[in-house]
Design a protein that fits this description.
The structure holds 2 protein chains of 2 kinds. By secondary structure, chain A is an all-alpha fold. Chain A is about 85% helix and about 0% strand. Chain A is built from 11 helices and no strands. Classes of the chains: A mainly alpha, B alpha/beta.
Chain lengths: ~260, ~260
């Protein structure tokens, strides 16, 4: 009985995976054929074989690694800084509730503002290199602050009461109750932010950079090399998938180590 | 005579809120002797829990004095343990780690606290769940773990704020017996707040009835049992005196609000 059930589950999984691969293969094939037979203009669409060739060429010259690592580093640094600063500010808002009330309208406006609009300002203030980081942090920090601060506010008041009956200091309450109780929120913020930071970095590179995948995309567009644009987009898709999986894995690890409820 | 363990002298308390001022307690005076088990009953909103918060040092009286061993209460103290209506265990800590939170906060010797917590877990039948997480425990076991957490700082005074109200009847009876035994054995002083009169009579040496808001002391009832030796809470419910006390205090409770 159970064996048959297990086989059925396994077969279903294989079927789904196979279909997913098949769709990918069909898209690539159709793309290649459409360009080959001039159903579309290959100048405009490029084609998978050209993308592959470009990938190999960029890899051989070492420029693939350079651009990829630049974008990756900017994303991870911006992500870390955005999360760290956001966590710090959220903790400060929890510590001084009056400050939180004063800051509330500013946070609402900043949260609603499309941070991408700040790009030129960062470029002028920070220069071509640092404006990318500025963009990456700006896009993730406000949502981090808002998410974490509201998460801190949802901690069961009576768990804090338990601490107060023991005479706990505010710092002890923050460290031993508010932060651990908010870890699921922190993990949710990580997930949101890894994608947002990547957006910030690419936009930042569009505006100013001399390296990175965003730069490569803009450059490819300007010199009308669609295979370069398409290749960069493919690499970018791979990076974002890897980063997202990394955060998901981290979330599982933390949840298991600290025995936290998982948020689906 | 020595100082009572707990004393309230002419205590009044006003709460302030945007809606206005509410008086929770009015001229409450009472004294609890060392080792005594006092129960406070009264209609909801009579300020029962407020009295516990005052003794715990979480609230300060608007007027009057709150004393523990003759000293005014200025804030939370190691001498006082406070058990809430529900367990509010930290779900990211094991049962043992939950028990250690008080000693951690108060900077006590953690090795000694650990031995004490393990001994309390043994006493409450939770020894085999020391490394389990709260979500693996039943309601009664969770409340036992909360009791262990409260007793881990070895307080002289235990404040119980309807600690059985979230439990089913059977668990309530057994847990009441256990808490009573642990407290009597260690000679601790206890103040129980409850709206369950039968529980108050079964557990305590004295029952205080509070009036509707603002809470004032309406009457005080000693609960002696024949033969001097105090029966366990479970046995107490079968004693002939029990019904008499129940009838007498029930009249005072003013349940219909007349």
């Amino acid at each position: 009985m159970w064996e048959a059930y297990r086989r059925r589950i396994l077969r279903q999984r294989l079927l789904i995976g196979g279909t997913q691969l098949l769709i990918l293969a069909a898209i690539l094939l159709l793309w290649e054929m459409a360009a080959d037979r001039y159903w579309v203009n290959p100048m405009l669409t490029s084609r998978p074989s050209d993308v592959w060739a470009t990938l190999l060429r960029l890899g051989a010259s070492g420029s693939l690694q350079r651009h990829l690592l630049t974008t990756l580093w900017e994303t991870l640094a911006g992500f870390g800084a955005g999360m760290g600063l956001g966590l710090g500010v959220a903790a400060a808002l929890w510590w001084w509730p009056a400050l939180a009330r004063v800051m509330d309208p500013y946070l609402v406006v900043l949260n609603a503002l499309p941070k991408i609009a700040l790009g030129p300002i960062f470029y002028i203030w920070l220069g071509d290199r640092w404006s990318v980081y500025g963009m990456a942090i700006a896009i993730s920090i406000i949502v981090t602050i808002v998410m974490l601060h509201s998460g801190f506010g949802e901690v069961e008041p009576n768990q804090i009461m338990v601490m107060r009956t023991f005479g706990a200091s505010r710092w002890q309450i923050l460290r031993k109750v508010v932060l651990p109780a908010s870890l699921p929120t922190l993990m949710a913020a990580l997930k949101v932010n890894i994608g947002l930071t990547l957006v910030g970095v690419i936009v930042g590179e569009f505006l100013s950079a001399r390296a990175g995948l965003g730069y490569l995309i803009i450059y490819g567009g300007q010199v009308f090399q669609m295979e370069l644009v398409m290749t960069s987009v493919v690499i970018l898709a791979a990076i974002s998938a890897v980063l997202y999986l990394g955060v998901t894995w981290l979330e599982r690890l933390v949840a298991r180590l600290l025995h936290l409820p998982m948020r689906s | 005579m020595a100082d009572p363990r707990i004393a309230l002298e002419q205590v009044s308390l006003h709460y302030l809120s945007p809606q206005g001022e509410t008086q929770a307690l009015q001229d409450v005076s009472l004294a609890v002797q060392p080792g005594e088990f006092l129960a406070i009953v009264g209609p909801s909103g009579s300020g029962k829990s407020t009295i516990l918060s005052l003794v715990a040092g979480i609230l300060q009286p608007t007027s009057g004095r709150v004393l523990v061993d003759g000293h005014p209460v200025t804030g939370p103290s190691r001498r006082v343990g406070y058990m809430l209506q529900r367990d509010y265990l930290f779900e990211w800590r094991t049962v043992r780690e939950n028990g250690l939170i008080g000693p951690e906060v108060q900077g006590l010797d953690l090795a000694a606290a650990r031995r004490r917590v393990d001994q309390l877990l043994e006493q409450t039948g939770l020894a085999s769940f020391a490394d389990a997480y709260p979500d693996q425990l039943s309601g009664g076991m969770r409340q036992r773990a909360a009791l262990v957490r409260t007793l881990a700082i070895d307080p002289d005074i235990l404040l119980l704020d309807e600690p059985f109200s979230a439990l089913d009847f059977q668990t309530r009876l057994t847990l009441a017996d256990e808490i009573h035994a642990i407290l009597k054995q260690s000679g601790k002083t206890a103040v129980l707040v409850t709206h369950d009169l039968s529980e108050a009579i079964a557990l305590s040496d004295r029952v205080i009835v509070l009036s509707r808001r603002p809470g004032r002391i309406k009457s005080v009832h000693a609960i002696p049992f024949d033969g001097g030796q105090r029966p366990t809470p479970f046995e107490a419910r079968d004693r002939p005196e029990y019904g008499t006390y129940f009838q007498r205090i029930w009249q005072e409770l003013d349940v219909q609000g007349r």
